[in-house]
Amino acid sequence: MNKLIVALVASFFAVSGFAASHAGAPMAGASAPAAAASGSKKAADKKAADKKAADKKAAASKKAASAAK
CA 59 to CA 69: how far, in whole Å? Predict the structure, then answer.
């Protein structure tokens, strides 16, 4: 019975270790986290640029509306 329990526990740790290493989990020396970080930085930069353009457009339309009065 003890051997069965030991085998089950050992297989559990083996499977969980295998799943963690193959599920895209960040590991030491992996290049995926750096790529993901640069991708999210690009997305944040684009979002900031879009917001700035929208603010500029809103200010221009507000200026045009006040000039039309």
Answer: 16
